[in-house]
Amino acid sequence: MRRTIVAGLTAALVSVGGCSALGRQAFQQPVVKVADIKLTGIGLTGGSMDVLVDVQNPNDFRLDATRMTYKVVLDTVQFATGAVDSKFTVEGNKTAQVRIPVNFTYAGIGEAGRQLLNTGGVNYTLSGDVTVGTVVGNFTVPFTNSGRVTNLGATR
Fold this sequence. Notes:
Elements: H1 2-26, E1 31-42, E2 46-56, E3 63-74, E4 77-84, E5 88-90, E6 95-105, H2 106-119, E7 121-134, E8 137-150, E9 154-155
Antiparallel strand pairs: 1-2, 2-6, 3-4, 3-5, 3-7, 7-8, 8-9
């Protein structure tokens, strides 16, 4: 009887430890990339734009995102920071597009704005993190993506 209890406890501990290690190894970080930047409004003092990002889930299971923080840098100027608190889901092995609304002032974009107007393009960096819930736990995953905004909308 005692031997059976010890064997059962040992098997349970091995299986729990194995599941925990398997869960950590099985999770692959989502990939966040800028899909497009669209100018949505322009006024006397500034404007607004939508930064569309693709969140790719390389896992076989669904990811439920609860929050995304971001920082947008144009050239060397910090252009916008913020958080998207609306929840979104990315199904297993799929990609979901998330819209980040950004408001800006002309005074705030400085040299980056002049470069965009003069050359038709400016380099950008989008960075931040996304918090996701999975079947193996919650993870906060950092991301960084760089490229070039051209013609007030197209990205490369």
